[in-house]
């Protein structure tokens, strides 16, 4: 039975959904004002893995992943210029042009990475009416106040009735100590109060009418509102990066408890960070590498281009709750590991059954399920697949045999875990199948010419073809009845 680590309780818990047949899952999506980077890829792939596995074990999943297109301010959750509005001003575009452009690019990157689309992808700007209604509930309960046309959460008053800080493990006194005073926040009762609605300055591009002012919702409000709208007042899983735990997710809990009288989420899940030289990768640190730069190799920290599947495999090789430190060398190691897995998968399809099995290939399905049930332990799943790959290679090399029934079972398990659950595409090209077939045909043709040259004792031509292919990164293996190659 699936166990997941609940950030709220800080322990692994058996997953028991509210509705036996339907799982409600909400994941914080991107703020679409720039190209996606590796830090965006990790939560997308982590929760794609969970999404796929929940469906594999028999659940229907309503997966909601939001698009933040308003209210995420540049300097602070409550202060500064809207990130999308700033991008629009600098590039002389309408804000929604910026949103559409980067949303399209995000979708393209996610498709390249094999990330399945969510069931629902709501935009914050499309749910202003619902957010205003949610804020009014908080005001009616007495946990918010109006100041100069803005609405703020009264954290001190809320903390008298509820535990503010329970997700991040903080208490209010810690938060008071850590919260710095910022210019322009004198309209708050306390510096740690956060905005539910902000009155728009005259130069602010994105604003809507409300009972309190012409303005826009606070960044935290969208997730509380859209989670409840599409998944109900109580739903199963809320996920995102660990950097969102405080203040974003902590604020979400406060908003939901204040408006509804209870927390909306049963299981909180957070993936850990990707770092560069021990420092978090992200736009705020100006040390990020975009996914397009990974795919093209056009960045000073990259030694070469890396395919989307290499990026996905690199992320899956580490447990989602562990920190992953990026380096081009680590990606090259992941690339080699993926090549080994791809080669084994290709060989598996070519195996011919025998009357009996002389090698044990059983138990793989159970081992992989056990690893996935242990808080989505994808590195252990991959290690089991590598163990199985050794058996496949032994059979392929003619040193063992496999029966028809065992072969079909092995093929089914590899397809399930490699393709359906890990989401890896097993081909030699990042392009479509037609491109991959043409690519394979061209290499085969060169090696057939080399084989013909060898038969004619034209060693110079034979050696030239071999040496040039090796220099381009191919592994060439001469076989008794032909040849074999891989990248």
Number of strands: 16
What percent of residues adopt helix (DSSP H or I)? 40-55%
How many domains, in number, for the residues?
A: 3
What kind of sheet is the major sheet?
5 strands, antiparallel
Q: What is the SS-derived class?
A: alpha/beta
Which architecture name of the largest domain does CATH use?
A: 3-Layer(aba) Sandwich
- Mean pLDDT equals 92
Determine the CATH topology of the largest domain.
Rossmann fold
For CATH, the homologous superfamily of the largest domain is named as HUPs
Strand content: 5-15%
Report the CATH C-level class of the largest domain.
Alpha Beta
Question: How much is the radius of gyration in Å?
Answer: 27 Å
N-to-C span:
39 Å
Order of strands, widest sheet = 5-6-7-9-8
Number of helices: 16
Low-confidence stretches: 428-434
Topology record:
Layout: E1 3-6, E2 11-14, E3 22-27, H1 38-56, E4 60-65, H2 83-91, H3 95-112, H4 128-141, E5 144-147, E6 150-153, H5 155-161, H6 172-178, E7 195-199, E8 208-209, E9 214-217, H7 221-231, E10 235-241, H8 245-260, E11 265-271, E12 274-276, E13 279-280, H9 291-296, H10 308-316, E14 324-326, H11 328-350, H12 364-373, H13 378-396, H14 404-421, H15 433-455, H16 459-471, E15 475-479, E16 482-486
Parallel strand pairs: 3-4, 3-10, 10-11, 12-14
Antiparallel strand pairs: 1-2, 5-6, 6-7, 7-9, 8-9, 12-13, 15-16
């Amino acid at each position: 039975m699936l166990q997941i680590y609940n950030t709220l309780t800080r322990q692994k818990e058996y997953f028991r959904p509210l509705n036996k047949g339907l799982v409600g899952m909400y994941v914080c999506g991107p703020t679409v004002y720039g190209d996606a980077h590796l830090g965006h890829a990790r939560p997308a792939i982590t929760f794609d893995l969970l999404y796929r596995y929940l469906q594999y074990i028999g659940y229907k999943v309503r997966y909601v992943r939001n698009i933040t297109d308003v209210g995420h301010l540049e300097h602070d959750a409550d202060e500064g210029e809207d990130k999308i509005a700033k991008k629009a001003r600098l590039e002389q575009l309408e804000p929604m042009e910026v949103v559409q452009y980067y949303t399209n690019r995000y979708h393209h990157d996610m498709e390249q990475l094999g990330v399945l689309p969510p069931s629902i992808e709501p935009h914050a700007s499309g749910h202003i009416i619902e957010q205003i209604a949610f804020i009014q509930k908080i005001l009616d309960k007495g946990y918010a106040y109006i100041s100069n046309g803005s609405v703020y959460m009264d954290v001190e008053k809320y903390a008298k009735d509820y535990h503010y800080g329970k997700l991040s493990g903080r208490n209010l006194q810690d938060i008071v100590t850590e919260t710095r005073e910022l210019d322009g926040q004198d309209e708050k009762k306390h510096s740690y109060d956060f905005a539910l609605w902000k009155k728009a300055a005259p130069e602010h591009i994105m604003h809507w009418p409300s009972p309190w002012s012409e303005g826009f919702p606070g960044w935290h409000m969208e997730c509380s509102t859209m989670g409840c709208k599409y998944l109900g007042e109580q739903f199963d899983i809320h996920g995102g990066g660990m950097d969102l735990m405080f203040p974003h997710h902590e604020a979400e809990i406060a908003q939901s408890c204040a408006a509804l009288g209870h927390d909306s989420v049963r299981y909180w899940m957070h993936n850990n960070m990707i770092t560069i030289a021990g420092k978090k990768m992200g736009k705020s640190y100006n040390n990020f590498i975009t996914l397009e730069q990974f795919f093209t190799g056009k960045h000073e920290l990259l030694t070469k281009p890396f395919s989307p599947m290499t990026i996905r495999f690199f992320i899956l090789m580490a447990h989602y709750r562990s920190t992953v430190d990026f380096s081009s060398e680590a990606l090259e190691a992941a690339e080699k590991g993926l090549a080994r897995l791809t080669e084994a998968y290709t060989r598996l399809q070519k195996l011919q059954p025998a009357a009996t099995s002389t090698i044990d290939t059983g138990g793989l399905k159970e081992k992989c399920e056990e690893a996935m049930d242990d808080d989505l332990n994808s590195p252990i799943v991959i290690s089991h697949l590598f163990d199985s790959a050794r058996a496949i290679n032994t059979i392929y090399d003619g040193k063992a045999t496999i029966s028809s029934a065992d072969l079909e079972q092995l093929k089914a398990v590899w397809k399930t875990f490699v393709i359906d659950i890990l989401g890896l595409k097993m081909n030699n090209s990042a392009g479509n199948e037609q491109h991959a077939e043409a690519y394979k045909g061209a290499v085969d043709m060169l090696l057939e010419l080399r084989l013909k040259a060898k038969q004619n004792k034209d060693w110079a031509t034979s050696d030239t073809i071999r040496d040039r292919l090796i220099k381009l990164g191919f592994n060439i293996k001469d076989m008794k009845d032909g040849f074999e190659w891989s990248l």
